[in-house]
Design a protein that fits this description.
713 residues; alpha+beta; Alpha-Beta Plaits; Multidrug efflux transporter AcrB transmembrane fold; three-stranded antiparallel beta sheet; 22 helices
Length: 713
């Protein structure tokens, strides 16, 4: 950022104009930001690939009946249902058929269905619930209404609500309040870390104000795009938005404050000090923000709707955070003056403590034997990456999706003991009416399907425009690998019926299509993100060797974080597996955000290399940026760890792995691996730039510090 441009933000009059502008923005944005939850679309279509067969079935089925899912009420008594139990079940069914609130279609209630004719031990009752545009918001109240009628069991008979309706209600409750939960968790982390970093109650308020303004503004923009621009926002993307804005915004604030402190010691006028801080730190912050924004936009190429929708949401959040931290934040710092740093106020003319700090000593120690240090560090990270053999990113079943055990999962286990495990979440088949009998025979004859279960669901048209729809129950649990294999067999069977144009959908088919789309996205998105990051680094550093080294270190860091996390998930947390999109999300966040610290370090090294030579510049760059990058890494790791406060395994796994990866980047990759690599390669790291031939060092590569006269050779 040029000094003239910087004065537009922190000039004597300009700073007040910037403040007024952001106050107006906040007044307009805050009410809109509060509506973002209402604009979320958490139905199946917001997650499914648009071209998937299950999505097509979902769209076709709307012509036959309103979109609906069944809540399955399961009654069970191991010793056998008594006459009193059966009378109670009959009374419950009578009451359920009268329900019509929260989208419940009580009149279409089916059951009871007993596990056996003689001496039954369990019964199922199927209550359909409408899943229209308001379905996600109404599913929890709908299940609560059903529970009010059926109770939780008594006198030895257990009652649970499971099936797609019960599970969806538990997921909805897990997402309920996600924005406020993550906001408070992330804010608490940022406050604690800023207190530790700044040791100032007054200073921590400034970045906090700027980050909250950025979050509200981003949420308002996303709400407007969701309502009027067709942008898809769901609970996942809204939650990650909060974490990204807090994490990235605070990182940018820390970097700018560190440079501002330096300039305050060199310049008496705080306006001039801030202009120089923006001029010198601005390119690194802008490059860092651009890396994250462009990496997130790469997600638009994904097949999964949920992944492609996350791209613009995250990009908008980081872009707004970047603008706020490069305008509102510096304006506030200049308005408050030096006293905002109390009790450690940077006085004009005082020495810079980084020259004699722990990171300066670390750099000098690494400089003695850089090649051995980077080789050992790289080997250690490679060994950690061997934990990847324990990675099971093949999807998480409903039973393993929650950190706790909600009622729907208990009910699913009880139901599987007495009924076909796939009951309640059937296959949905559509075909041409003329070939319906042949298609039905093909489905019934497929292993894994209960033959006698084929039928027309209640409330469904028998035919529409030459097509028919029917359902079939599977023998395996609907979220199991066996059920997915059954879907593949059924699809092969019905696709082979000539002129039937048959398609297979339903919950299991949707899971299968999601897995296939995510595997495609992993292969496509990961290389694209690497290319984007490499191009940005090449443009920023005007070199090729340095960017290649940096990208290589980030990949190694990603593999190590994934390997350690896989071992932790298996042997510490006892998680059953990971979602298929887990590696993709972790990679995008770690590479896009982890490269930030390398950008902060290498831009400072390049600046110092032009003055004093590459090898001395490496030590100076590490000394100058070490403390701020460490603080930024701790803040970012803490904000992602806040995802662990949500009661869902997928979020906890992403939060843990990204937090771990950020810490590895902060304390090992940036401070040890990158530093030692640059020290070993020397000025050739800037090839093909002229710095590779003539940097600011003396011909004999003079000592970096006293006592280390030729340690860089």
């Amino acid at each position: 950022m040029k000094r003239g441009v910087a004065h537009l933000v922190c000039g004597r009059r300009a700073k007040w104009l910037v403040l007024v502008f952001w106050v107006v923005v906040l007044v307009v944005a805050a009410p809109l930001a509060m509506k973002l939850t209402d604009a979320q679309d958490n139905d199946a279509a917001s997650w499914l690939p648009g071209s998937a067969e299950s999505t097509q079935v979902l769209q076709i089925s709307e012509d036959f009946r309103p979109e609906q899912i069944p809540a399955v009420v399961i009654y069970a008594r191991d010793s056998g249902l008594t006459a009193q139990d059966r009378a109670q079940i009959a009374e419950d069914v009578r009451q359920l058929k009268q329900l019509s609130d929260h989208g419940i279609i009580g009149e279409q209630t089916r059951g009871p269905v007993f596990d056996r004719q003689a001496d039954p031990r369990a019964a199922q009752v199927f209550v359909p619930i409408m899943m229209d545009e308001e379905g996600w918001e109404r599913i929890s109240p709908a299940v609560d209404s059903i529970r009010d009628d059926v109770g939780t069991g008594s006198d030895g008979m257990t009652v649970h609500i499971t099936g797609p309706g019960g599970t969806s209600a538990d997921f909805a409750e897990a997402f309920e309040g996600i924005d406020s939960t993550l906001l408070l968790s992330a804010m608490a982390v940022v406050i604690v870390m800023l207190l530790i970093t700044y040791r100032s109650l007054t200073l921590l308020l400034v970045p906090l104000i700027a980050v909250v303004c950025a979050l509200f503004t981003a949420q308002a923009l996303i709400y407007l795009l969701a309502e009027h621009g067709g942008l898809t926002v769901n609970g996942q993307s809204a939650g990650i938005l909060t974490v990204l804005v807090f994490g990235a915004g605070t990182d940018y604030a820390l970097l700018l404050v560190a440079r501002y402190r330096e300039e305050l010691r060199r310049h008496e006028d705080r306006h001039e000090a801030m202009a120089l801080a923006l001029h010198r730190a601005g390119p690194a912050v802008l490059a860092s923000g651009a890396t994250v924004v462009l990496s997130m936009l790469v997600l638009l190429a994904a097949e999964m709707n949920s992944t492609s929708g996350l791209g613009p949401v995250a990009a908008i959040g980081v872009a707004v955070a970047l603008v706020a931290m490069m305008s509102l934040f510096p304006a506030l710092l200049v308005i408050f003056g030096r006293w905002i740093f109390w009790p450690v106020v940077p006085r004009y003319g005082t020495a810079d403590p980084t020259e004699r700090g722990v990171w300066a000593r670390t750099g000098r120690r690494i400089a003695r034997r850089p090649r051995m240090i980077w080789a050992v560090t790289a080997l250690a990270l490679a060994i950690c990456s061997l934990g990847l053999i324990q990675l099971r990113a093949e999807g998480i079943g409903n039973a393993d999706a929650f950190t706790g055990k909600p009622d729907s999962i208990t009910g699913q286990e009880v139901s599987a003991r007495y009924f076909p495990a796939g009951s309640g979440d059937p296959l949905v088949i559509v075909s041409n009416q003329a070939q319906a009998v042949q298609v039905g025979r093909a489905v019934a004859g497929t292993p894994g399907v209960v033959p006698q279960s084929l039928g027309l669901p209640p409330g469904t048209r028998p035919a529409f425009e030459g097509k028919v729809l029917f359902e079939a129950t599977m023998t395996a649990p609907s979220d199991s690998e066996a059920a997915k294999q059954t879907v593949e067999r059924v699809r092969d069977a019905v696709h082979a019926v000539p002129d039937a144009d048959a398609k297979v959908g339903g919950g299991t088919a949707a899971l299968l299509d999601m897995d296939e789309a995510t595997r495609h996205d992993n292969v496509l998105i990961i290389p694209l993100v690497l290319v984007v990051v490499l191009l940005i680094l090449c443009g920023l550093l005007r070199a090729l060797i340095a960017p290649l080294l940096l990208v290589g270190t980030v990949i190694l860091s990603f593999a190590a974080a994934l390997g350690i996390s896989a071992l932790a998930f298996r042997y510490v947390f006892d998680y059953a597996g990971e979602a298929t999109d887990f590696p993709l999300f972790v990679f995008v966040f770690l590479v896009a955000l982890g490269i930030d610290y390398n950008i902060f370090l290498t831009t400072r090294i390049r600046e110092e290399a032009a003055r004093q030579g590459t090898r001395p510049g490496v030590v100076t760059g590490l000394a100058a940026t070490g403390a701020v990058i460490t603080s930024a890494g701790l803040v970012l790791a803490g904000t992602f760890a806040a995802l662990g406060t949500l009661p869902m395994v997928a979020f906890a796994e992403i939060g843990f792995t990204v937090a771990l990866g950020v810490l590895i980047d902060t304390f090992i990759v940036r401070s040890v691996l990158v530093t030692s690599l640059f020290l070993d390669v020397g000025r050739k790291v800037w090839w093909p730039h002229r710095l590779a031939r003539h940097d600011g060092g003396t011909p004999d590569r003079a000592a970096v510090a006293a006592g280390v006269s030729r340690s860089f050779e």
